[in-house]
Amino acid sequence: MTSTRRDDYDPLAPQNVENPHAAFAELRRSCPLAHGERWGGFWLLSRYSDIVAVTRDHATFLNSVQNVVPAVTTTGRRPPLHFDPPEHTLWRKALSSPFKTSTLNALEPRVRELTDQALTPLLANGRAELISELAGLLPVRVLCAFLNAETVETEARIRSLSNRFLRAYHDRDHAALEHASRDLYAIAADLLAARKREPLDAQRDIASALLALRIDGEPASDDLMQGALRQLLVAGHVAVTMMLGSAARHLALDPELQNQLREHPERIGAAVEELLRLYTPNQAFCRAAKHPVELHGETIPPREPIVVLYPSANRDETVFEAPDEFRLDRPVKHVAFGNGIHKCPGEALARIELRVFLERLLLRTRHFALDGKVEFASWPEYGPKSLSLRFEAV
């Protein structure tokens, strides 16, 4: 097979920040295996079939070498994301129970209550900067509820430290990144210490589930349990923040869809799936081959990062007809939450957050629209970082 390699893909080029999908479409057509020179170099796969194949083959394509581009070179290995089987299997199983349907269904009324609390002052004011006043706050509050740690102090610590961590990551400030990560580990240590003092049901509480984990008959080490919680403290809300902003922006630009969903709220779940497909918030997840592999005529050496562009896969025209269009009746084939054994364990909770947000926003408004220019986050996230709306409340 003849290589079509390109070495010029730059995730931070201005045109790729606001609308990376135009570049992704060109890669799918002409260069399904591309290469970028930033951050020491990385490969990119853009087609749905390639991404599904690679993420299913966890024996060849590892997560333990590097799982995001650029790499996060900070404290500790954080299971299960940083592990391959068989280690990954044990940790993933331990974390699965608190994410089961019955537990999350019991949490949903609290998600609705928190959503209404966040919306009420914004609707009363008639306008809002949605990211700073809701989308950046609500997912942290829901995360605290999920962690059974709803205190003002815990919420403030997670939000502040996550913001510090992300700023340092974007700025490639390794010292600040390390410091913020250590402070996030301290939150995780405090959560575990609280559960050691007052255990909860391991079927309903992540920290308790970790404390109940046994590896070869022995409890897991404190540093790995802290790492598992530390991972959740960032991953558990950043992508949801991006999706809340993207969903609100899309509906603000489509009054007809707003009205359709107000009249048929039973279709909001389908709208959530299509919005996830269109606005998949994570661009930078990657794998690394265990041994040399050939893809599209190129031999990729072992341990080099291969980005699996989930946002590109979700607009692949060979899988999704008219992929840039919003269609409520599409079959759910998207990989917005990843694919394979590392698929996001929190996908059901994220769906609840998005659905409840749209239900309450649509029910409590007659109309909402953009109120100024939208600014977009840059790689590794995709979505608005600034989004002003004006509302006509019910």
Q: How would you characterize this protein structure?
A:
- This protein is α+β, with helices and mostly antiparallel strands.
- The chain has a single domain, classed as Cytochrome P450 (Cytochrome p450).
- Helix content is 50%, strand content 12%.
- It has a 5-stranded mixed sheet, with helices on one face. Strands 4-14-11 form a 3-stranded antiparallel sheet. It has a two-stranded antiparallel sheet with strand order 5-6.
- Helix 8 packs antiparallel against helix 9 and helix 14 crosses helix 16.
- The longest helix has 25 residues.
- It starts with 13 loop residues before the first helix and ends with a strand.
- The mean pLDDT is 94.
In short:
This protein is an alpha+beta fold. It has 16 helices and 14 strands.
- Write down the domain tally: 1
Helix content: 40-55%
Sheet/helix structural class = alpha+beta
Determine the strand fraction and express it as a percent band: 5-15%
CATH superfamily descriptor: Cytochrome P450
Question: How far is the N terminus from the C terminus?
Answer: 60 Å
- Main pleated-sheet profile: 5 strands, mixed
For the largest sheet, list the strands in their spatial order: 1-2-10-7-3
* The first-level CATH class name: Mainly Alpha
Number of strands: 14
Overall outline: globular
Question: Which runs of at least 5 residues are low in confidence (pLDDT < 50)?
Answer: none
The average pLDDT score comes to 94
> What order do the SSEs take from the amino end to the carboxyl end, as H and E?
HHEEHEHHEHHHHHEEHHHHEEEEHHEEEE
The CATH topology assignment is Cytochrome p450
**CATH architecture grouping:** Orthogonal Bundle
Rg value: 21 Å
Number of helices: 16
